[in-house]
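Each record in this resource describes a single protein on a pair of labelled lines. An example record follows, reproduced without changes.
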Amino acid sequence: MATRHQARTAVVGLLYAYDLGNDNIGKFSDEILEEGKIRNKQKEFSDILFQGTIENLEMLDAKIKEHLKDWDYDGIGKVEKAIMRLGAYEILVAKTDKAIIINEAVELAKELADEKSPQFINGVLDALDKEK
């Protein structure tokens, strides 16, 4: 059975594909999640995270941009954006515990992004939460 971490990893992949211009990636999410053995409650969890992030994308991007210091949003890597968007959704919309989400985002960044990304993502998500 897949863990929530594995479910979030899959959602980051879906968000990454969406950001690359594959607007129809949601139609293939069932197959992608099944390939990762993400089923039942974790599949439902993944679907909620992906759809919720996409539905709130404009607001999430605006909130993230407010907390970027000396960074051009368009210059940030797509993997980093996917992780931050998912984290921002969980903090601002789903109201998941901040410590859990920041920890998850940092772990995802360590696995999927470059070596400076965990600290950067941690700072942005921590700033987001403080404005709530």
